[in-house]
Design a protein that fits this description.
The chain is mainly α. The chain has a domain of 73 residues. It has three helices and no strands. The protein is flat, with a radius of gyration of 29 Å. The mean pLDDT is 79.
Length: 119
């Protein structure tokens, strides 16, 4: 059996030369970016950064709880009367609602503490 090797469309040297030329063309852009002074640097305080992180984490937690509520609801509907699946779905829904409640209470506590220390 005679197997013929396929010829490369582009020789390796051509690809290497093309990459080299591309790198050389990018040098002015790189040096211009390196020499440009940094402007618009945010000057946030630590409390602002922590507040932003807290809001982000609370949003993430609420989003996850909502997804768990939807998942529990779909699981409940798809249980088809199976008691074990129904109980599992109810637990998922219960824990998701507890998570929303805990996140809400923690947000309220953080807001009260922030108001106390802000004044």
């Amino acid at each position: 059996m005679n197997i013929k090797k396929e010829k490369n469309i582009l020789p390796k040297k051509t690809v290497i030369v093309a990459i080299g030329i591309s790198a050389l063309l990018a040098i002015p852009e790189i040096t211009a970016a390196a020499l440009t002074p940094i402007t618009g640097v945010p000057t946030k305080s630590i409390s602002d950064v922590l507040g932003d992180a807290t809001n982000w984490l609370i949003g993430l937690g609420i989003s996850l709880c909502i997804l768990l509520l939807i998942w529990g609801g779909v699981y409940y509907v798809g249980s088809s009367g199976d008691q074990e699946k129904t109980q599992t779905a109810k637990k998922i829904i219960k824990y998701a609602l507890m998570g929303i409640f805990i996140i809400g209470v923690s947000y309220a506590i953080i807001s009260v503490i922030d108001d106390i220390f802000a004044s």
